[in-house]
Amino acid sequence: VQLVESGGGLVQPGGSLRLSCAASGFPFSTTYMSWVRQAPGLGLEWVSSITSDGRTTPYRASVKGRFTISRDNAKNTMYLQMNSLKSEDTALYYCAIGTGINTPRGQGTQVTVSS
Question: Which of 11, 43, 69, 83 is the right S-S partner for 48, CB 3.0 to 4.6 Å?
Fold first, then answer.
């Protein structure tokens, strides 16, 4: 199993970023996937998930309406479009198999929202 996140960076409040997760080593197209994040000094926090067909996409309340999760099963890749970013979105973002809680995840990509 390999999960490789990319797309993080430093962005001003109100800005946007698009995270990508390249997956390999397992049947991605039939796997429920998630994004989770961890802010400095805090625990792991679920952000969003997506079913294998992409039709169901729950979000945590604080990101709903600002973040959009999607996937391209032909490319074995999952995405997280993040708009209207806030300082409280600053965290290390991981893609994960399943719910992201006690399941395999990548090495993470850092998102820093600051002016």
Answer: 69
